[in-house]
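Q: What changes when copper (II) ion is included in the input?
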Amino acid sequence: MFKYLPPFAAAALTIGLAACGAHGSAAGTSGVAVMPGLPFEISYTLPDAALPKNTIGEELPSEGVGTKKDPTWGKVGGYTQTRKAQVLAFPPNTTVTIRNLSKSNPHTLDVFANAGKPPAQFPSNPNLPISAHGNGKLSVGYASGAINPGQSVKVKLVKAGTYLIGCAFHYSFGMQDVLIVKAGVKPGPDVLR
Ligand SMILES: [Cu+2]
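A: The predicted holo structure follows.
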């Protein structure tokens, strides 16, 4: 891109990117770095960063998190522990932060059934309350309540199990996923479990 980047400019760019990363912008992984007093600017793209540990991010698949065909459970979408849709997994007794990654839509995380054996059989019209249920403890019947854009709620995974989850507002838009609560499990479609 540039044959020569003055050392001070490189330092300024590094500082700028570090500051950007520290704010952990949800999906803002590209932009333009402008250095005051210098007659050029630099476009950059940062790799997708993982969410903080023990965080579930949620948004519409079309808002960026997408859907995934999991080899074990089938198509899931809307929820992630990284940046892209995946089957979720945590050990029991973890306290998880559910974070709405959207800039414009409220979302929920509702647990409406045990998953049973794979692949996941998502019913066409499950009971998904918008109001909060379960008192911050996750098992079948838990509902986060509406989480506004950028906001979070915490829930404790008190009971081992494999659950079907969905969003009360956007289940039919593909916010359907599997949450595994079991010792030693790893999230994601590419890890044996
Ligand atoms: Cu939603």
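Observations recorded in class: The pocket of copper (II) ion is lined by residues 105, 107, 167, 169-170, 175 (CB under 6 Å).
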